[in-house]
What does this fold into?
Amino acid sequence: LRFSGFMKTLSFSLLLVLSGLASRAAITGQWDFETSDLSATTALGIANINGEVGRVMRFPACSSSQGYVLPHGAAPNGGGSKVNQYTLILDVLFPATSTGYRAFWQTDTSNTSDADLFVNGANGIGISGTYQGSLTLGAWHRVAFALDLTATSGQLSKYIDGALVGTQTLSEGVDGRWSLGPTALLFTDDNGETGVGY
It folds into this structure.
């Protein structure tokens, strides 16, 4: 995980899982910050995670030239030349002052198009006008996006704290907008629809 652009402090836990219809899912990358010392030099003033102090980072409202580069190491799947079946899991907290659209995921590594997954102003998660569930501001949530782009149109399933909050059909299938090349970006968008989080 590498920050692209001006560095501020960041915080989240991330898990990328590849899924296949015929086989059990395999974890291809996990970033949980448990193997190094990320002790805070100042109190962040945020809630504990399940009652325990966690190693977290604060991420800024990134500009289009900033963000976090994620080299996932996953092999192409789903019949295309890119990764077309995967699950993205993030532990996130957006502060009580958080408003507007906040990007989670950007598959366009040049960041010249709209991000691919967001939390919207009503704190629902999704994309393309279909936002479901609700993140409580100031609280930790485990957010998961399961994508299967092997159908004619892709399928996106959305979870908050383990509960399915909605599904939607994506406009593109195999090797389309939501598929992955060798890297992806976190918490950035082409026109600054981002926000501070943990």
In short: Residues 47 and 139 are 6 Å apart (CA to CA). The chain has a mean pLDDT of 85.
